[in-house]
Amino acid sequence: MPEEAREGKKAPGFALPDPSGKKVKLSDFAGKKVVLYFYPKDDTPGCTTQACGFRETHDGITAKNAVVLGVSPDPAKSHEAFIAKFGLPFTLLSDEDHKVAETYGSWGEKNLYGKKTVGILRSTFLIDEQGRIFKVFRKVKPAGHAEEVLAAL
Fold this sequence. Notes:
Layout: E1 15-17, E2 23-25, E3 33-38, H1 45-56, H2 58-63, E4 66-72, H3 76-86, E5 91-94, H4 99-103, E6 107-112, E7 115-120, E8 123-127, E9 133-137, H5 145-152
Parallel strand pairs: 3-4, 4-5
Antiparallel strand pairs: 1-2, 3-8, 6-7, 8-9
């Protein structure tokens, strides 16, 4: 895992497009906590479970001065449809070349039904108001994860 994506370290900066094409930077959220979660693919069972969990806990998360940012390699159009279909009240970002996922150690080899593939390693980073990572969740299970995140905030 890259040295900079560990608890206690400054979170690696990034600028990724949201569904409208606007570049969103980590630095845009200075003074707020950020829930940065990496997930494999829009509108798949696990990713939908996870996103809907964040939708259900969104009010509690924002009450703790935090924003949710979801990141996947999907293009903006896919994010737009996913947000509309499930009424997601938070921002999804496109990391099509998976450079940001790599920086956070959230891209690599995984075992899917006995087959080795390379892709997003489902993980979440909690970043404090000063831009430091204060909690890392690896090998995230989609069900119940948003509640874990809310409790950690």
